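Morning run. Coffee first, then this:
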Amino acid sequence: MSTSDASTPASADRSLRGLLLLLATIAGVAVANIYYNQPLLDNFRQSFPNSASWVGAVPAVTQLGYAAGMLLLAPLGDRFDRRLLILLQIVGMCVALVLASTAPTLSVLIVASLAIGVLSTIAQQAVPFAAELAPASQRGHAVGTVMSGLLLGILLARTAAGIVAEYFGWRAVFGASVVALLVLAAVIIMRLPKSKPTSTLPYGKLLVSMWHLVVEHRALREASLTGAAMFAAFSIFWSVLALLLAGAPFHLGPQAAGLFGIVGAAGAMAAPLAGKFSDRRGPRAIITVSIVLVAISFVVFALSAKSIAGLVIGVIILDIGVQAAQISNQSRIYALKPEARSRVNTVYMVAYFIGGAVGSGVGAAVWPAFGWVGVSVAGVGFAALAAWNHLRLAATVKG
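And here it is:
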């Protein structure tokens, strides 16, 4: 391609699309690592029978690790080249995955899972990178494109993990991820450009500045709590699904639990559309609709404890609601302070994944005590919290 061709608008659009697809792939492959363990809980219980009551800690600490990684690593995207940060985290995550695949005890697996969660924040370098590359008029669509990759990674991770575990055992799941990350690293080296740092703050001040962003931007506080509550609802379902399917009347293994990820991929398909809608109409209306959808999904779940068809319908509604709200929330926060997108994203995503960890933890506590109905009621409760937070500020916070 000639230089003049490269400078045409059509060529620039193609180049941007190519970079967004690569960033979407990076986000999806990276974030998948924190969800591989969810359809494997029954496998962990069988491998470590003396620690069976603690298997729920694996997804919970993975998500807590992700929140910690967001706090400690993601802000560095404003200070350093995001491409270099992504490559360094891939190296560290490969080490953690090897440890998980060879874990002799559940305790070692939990430690490895914590490290995997911390280092999987590669995905949160990709999303602000997309916002940086795209013009303001296309920012919602660009974020939605990369988020669709991230969401597919979240959902299809369960499918891939379930299939691999069914035929090769759960340890092979983590080994396969190492191979995928090494291939991705080679593509990143060849195709991904360097990013431009937007801050010269030292690390300590970079972290402290996030508190100032929280104090300064009420919309950031609102979006963070709403997002956390929505992701708690999402996580409570997915962290318990494998246990529901393993028991009566289903008696299904990890492959079946993983295949629900394909159903949930419908939500990922809504991400770019949600981004476009946010660009045109503003995000608040779509967030309201999304909260209603999540509440409806848990009503469907409550009525579907013995119905695969009902669970499938509920999964589609849940994932569309959660992912549409996520895109709309991120579209809002990236416009607040362009020179601090990584830090704004960090504040939001730390809250988001703390919400996910809370959801997984509540699921682990509610499931043995109250069963599937208790899990469904808790899911509605998280949706109600999101609605209260979102609507109480509707008159004073503009999208």
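The first helix runs from residue 3 to 6. Good start to the day.
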